[in-house]
Amino acid sequence: MHKRKFNKQAYNQTDSACKQATVSIMKSRGYNLIGDVDHENFQKWDLEFFHPEKKITIIVENEMRENFDLLKTRYSSIHIPIRKRLSPATYYLVWNCQVDEFALIENQYLTSSPVVEITCKARGDIPSYKEEMVDVSKKNILFFKKIDSKWKLQNNNLKK
């Protein structure tokens, strides 16, 4: 089974916008960022937050997808890399490229959803390859969209 070579520069470019949006959302809900937004527990999680009144810690993992609109309208599930099953993240967020929509997946669905093998299409100088992914059903995913500066749940508009 082939895997893509990790592209740290592309990762930093897309991940930074997702992190900033996540920090903004969590701050608006009363959570404080633990550590620095630019520091990551690489291959473990992106961001960690603490709510001082509720005494709750939340860990978030972010990912950006170019095909986000297709995830919402065409597919019945979202494929998440199998390595994310080992993440201690409370939530896994999949963002669109404009960072104004995201899909929220709870950790329980990363660990309990079935694993599938998919063929990833060739792109540029990267040949096609097979990869194991967690197949998370959209019925277990919450979709949000930023409308008039507020995040709104969008699940009732989705094709399932």
Structure notes:
With 160 residues, the chain is an alpha+beta fold. It has one domain: Trna Endonuclease, Chain: A, domain 1, CATH 3.40.1350. The chain is built from 3 helices and 10 strands; from the N terminus they run αβββαβββαββββ. It has helices at 8-28, 68-73, 107-112, and strands at 32-34, 47-51, 56-64, 77-81, 91-95, 101-106, 115-120, 129-137, 141-147, 150-153. The model has no long low-confidence stretch (mean pLDDT 87).
Judging by the overall fold, what is the CATH architecture? 3-Layer(aba) Sandwich
SSE topology string: HEEEHEEEHEEEE
How is the biggest beta sheet arranged? 7 strands, mixed
* Highest CATH level, the class: Alpha Beta
Sum up the structure in keywords.
alpha+beta, three-stranded antiparallel sheet, 160 residues, Trna Endonuclease, Chain: A, domain 1
Q: Outline of this structure?
A:
The chain is α+β, with helices and mostly antiparallel strands and 160 residues long. Helix content is 21%, strand content 37%. It has one domain (8-157): 3-Layer(aba) Sandwich (Trna Endonuclease, Chain: A, domain 1).
Layout: helices, strands, pairs:
Elements: H1 8-28, E1 32-34, E2 47-51, E3 56-64, H2 68-73, E4 77-81, E5 91-95, E6 101-106, H3 107-112, E7 115-120, E8 129-137, E9 141-147, E10 150-153
Parallel strand pairs: 3-5
Antiparallel strand pairs: 1-2, 2-3, 4-8, 5-6, 6-9, 7-8, 9-10
